Amino acid sequence: MTAAAAASDRASAIDVALIARLTRMAGDLAINLLIAALILVLTVIAARWSSGVVRRGMSRVRGLKHDPTVVNFVVQIVRVGVFLIGFIAVLQRLGVQTTSIIAVLGAASLAVGLALQGTLSNVAAGVVLLILRPYRVGDVIEVGGASGLVQRLDLFVTQICNADNHKIVVPNGKVLGDVIVNLSGQGTRRVEIHFSVGYGTNLKQARHVLAITAAAHEKVLADPVPWAGVTGLLDSAVQVTLHAWVKSDDWWQTQADLFEQVKVALDAAGVEIPFPHQVQMDHAPPPPGPDPTEPFPRPPVPVAPSAARSSRTPRLSLRTRKAAS
Q1: Which of 47, 96, 122, 165 could lock onto 82 through a cystine, CB 3.0 to 4.6 A?
Q2: What is the pTM of this model?
């Protein structure tokens, strides 16, 4: 009985110690989870605060005040860096060996780089675009078969918006590897319009009407002077081209205005603007010739072989010839 009681006491002591240890571990885990959650919340607050500080600081720089491309790019990098530091701190607080994780990530970086080479190339292309700066936020560009206003340049993609208010996302790798046409990269832009006039038109008068009409427009720049000249001889018309220089922001509306105003001016001046047409020609067939005077030759009638043999003179035998003689 004494031994059984002692064994029971030892088992009770072990259970109490195990329960105490489990309770202590649960308390430590709860505290670590609470601290990790607090670190995560502080990380989010720190990311927002640091990105705001960087944005305000870089916006005060004179060269970057009107160029949000670099500001947004740097702010995004700072935000990602703060989140990465906070994530490592959370893992370390939860008891995860961050040094081993970093070692594993370093060993797997090659495989990850090969698997995500397209994504990483977009990141590298985004950095190159930020350095070279072929376009900025607010420019109108044409790239990859799409054209529109640049709204955002991220680490991975470039977001543009076309005239139909469609959101177009182009990977930075495709942007850097394609031809980039910056339509608003220069302060001025040329309007080029082709008109067709009839071959009987006074070409000097037509050129004068085009140049005077363009010069009278308020958005057309006086320098360079508007130019008009003959640029082609078409099938049923003469092509006259108008060149007028405007500011890049006024290009679309000025082009539409010149189309309308030049058409009205040409009509008022009596200049014909031909349209594609077909000419109908009356064609009478020649009268039939006289009948032939000579008879038409007929082909010979073929003779059957049996009939040919019967028409031949029969041969006489030698006896018959002697009797006849």
Answers
A1: 47
A2: 0.55
